[in-house]
């Protein structure tokens, strides 16, 4: 039977890296009977590599109202593409990290609708999901909101999000319930649950692990991923980005411009003194809420005899915006921005000088065209001088 692999995240589990690898190796995948089809349409603020987005696409009309007909059109066109790909390939892969979220809220019926399509067109669905411990998931999600300046969360401190903000989307942290709902539709045997922990990945790589789960070897003719995609901001850089998000004088383009520099600075985050955004006690208290559910996840969905996640909670000092490294990081950020503005200004000055030269040349040429008699006289004069 043909197989549709649906990779649904969860968010912040290297989904962007997997999508980039699949995109970069689309031709090699097709040689082996797999297809990672390109997105047919562009959605606002959605990476085009998220080729499964048509399943949950949120569409508004010019008045900001939900456009149900357009959403259905995206679904129909996306499923048409899947059916066409199944005519050539036995396996089709769709991926979008937002599916995990929307299964809990706005698109609860998406799997049931997809299962109807599968029964009609005679293919099976296998869902792949990576899970990380809830405290790591929460912190990564908060970091992503701030980095991308998304929703009200982009202006909250970590403590504000931890104490109240995340409760509006608490369902996405209840892994056992969500897996039960997925298994009810496609069957437990078609649900692939993996930990987002490098020590349990195949060959210690998220790419190798994903490929292994769909029946392929990442070394078998595939081009390796050049770099990790969608890295999180460092702690100090996150705070600077949060403050930028709060500033009403900056528009979205300016905020994104400054965010690019903060991402570059964040690459040195590991060199700083270790700290945690949450205290050990806060993490332990938070994880208690999910302990029973995580135990069931380990027993019923992972089934290797080990706990769902590491039970170790590091006892690190809690991060403070007044830490010793903050002034230096802020200085590096502002100097990087100023240097880039200076460089661009110099380039523009050079361009202006070159344009001025071109304008002067055009003026001279124009003057000659206006007075052709002068040109003829100059030529005659030059000829006469040569004869003498």
Give the helices and strands, then pairings:
Blueprint lengths: L1 E6 L7 H10 L1 H6 L2 E2 L32 H19 L4 E5 L2 H5 L7 H12 L1 E9 L2 H15 L9 H6 L11 H12 L4 E5 L10 H8 L21 H12 L5 H15 L13 H9 L2 H12 L23 H45 L1 H16 L1
Parallel strand pairs: 1-3, 1-4, 2-3, 4-5
Give me some keywords for this one.
globular; 388 residues; five-stranded parallel β-sheet; 15 helices; alpha/beta; single chain
Number of helices: 15
- The protein's oligomeric status is single chain
**What is the CA-CA span between the terminal residues?**
96 Å
The average pLDDT score comes to 90
- In the sheet with the most strands, the strands line up as 2-3-1-4-5
User: How many beta-strand elements?
Assistant: 5
Helix- and strand-based class?
Answer: alpha/beta
Residue windows where pLDDT falls under 50 for at least 5 positions: none
Helix fraction bin: 40-55%
What string gives the helices and strands in order?
EHHEHEHHEHHHEHHHHHHH
- How much of the sequence lies in strands comes to 5-15%
Give the biggest beta sheet.
5 strands, parallel
Give the overall form: globular
Radius of gyration: 28 Å
Q: Can you give a write-up of this model?
A:
The protein is of the alpha/beta class and 388 residues long. It is built from 15 helices and 5 strands. It has helices at 15-24, 26-31, 68-86, 98-102, 110-121, 134-148, 158-163, 175-186, 206-213, 235-246, 252-266, 280-288, 291-302, 326-370, 372-387; strands at residues 2-7, 34-35, 91-95, 123-131, 191-195. Strands 2-3-1-4-5 form a 5-stranded parallel beta sheet. Helix 10 runs antiparallel to helix 11 (252-266). It is globular. 31% of the residues are buried. The model has no long low-confidence stretch (mean pLDDT 90).
């Amino acid at each position: 039977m043909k197989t549709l692999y649906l990779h649904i995240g969860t968010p912040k589990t290297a989904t962007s890296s997997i999508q980039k690898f699949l995109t970069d190796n689309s031709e090699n995948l097709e040689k082996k009977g797999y297809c990672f089809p390109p997105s047919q349409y562009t959605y606002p603020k959605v990476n085009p590599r998220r080729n499964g987005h048509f399943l949950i696409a949120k569409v508004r009309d010019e008045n900001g109202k939900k456009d149900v007909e357009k959403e259905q059109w995206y679904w129909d066109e996306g499923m048409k593409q899947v059916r066409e790909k199944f005519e050539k390939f036995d396996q089709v892969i769709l991926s979008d990290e937002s599916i995990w979220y929307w299964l809990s809220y706005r698109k609860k019926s998406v799997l049931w609708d997809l299962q109807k399509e599968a029964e009609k067109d005679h293919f099976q669905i296998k869902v792949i999901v990576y899970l990380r411990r809830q405290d790591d998931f929460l912190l990564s999600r908060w970091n992503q909101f701030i980095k991308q300046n998304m929703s009200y969360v982009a202006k909250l401190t970590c403590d504000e999000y931890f104490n109240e903000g995340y409760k509006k989307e608490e369902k996405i942290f209840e892994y056992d319930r969500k897996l039960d709902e997925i298994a009810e539709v496609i069957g437990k045997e078609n649900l692939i649950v993996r930990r987002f922990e490098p020590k349990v990945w195949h060959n210690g790589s998220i790419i190798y692990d994903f490929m292994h789960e769909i029946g392929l070897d990442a070394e078998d003719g595939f081009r390796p991923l050049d770099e990790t995609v969608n890295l999180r901001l460092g702690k100090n850089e996150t705070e600077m980005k949060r403050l930028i998000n709060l500033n009403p004088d900056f528009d979205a383009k300016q905020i994104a411009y400054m965010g690019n520099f903060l991402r570059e600075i964040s690459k040195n985050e590991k060199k700083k003194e270790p700290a945690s955004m949450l205290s050990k006690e806060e993490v332990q208290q938070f994880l208690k809420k999910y302990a029973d559910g995580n135990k069931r996840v380990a027993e019923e969905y992972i089934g290797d005899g080990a706990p769902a996640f590491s039970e170790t909670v590091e006892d690190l000092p809690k991060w403070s915006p007044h830490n010793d490294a903050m002034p230096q990081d802020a200085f590096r950020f502002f100097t990087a921005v100023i240097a880039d503005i200076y460089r661009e200004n110099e380039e523009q000055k050079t361009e202006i000088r070159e344009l001025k030269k071109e304008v002067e040349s055009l003026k001279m040429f124009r003057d000659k065209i206006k007075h052709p008699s002068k040109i003829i006289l100059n030529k005659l004069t030059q000829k006469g001088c040569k004869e003498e």
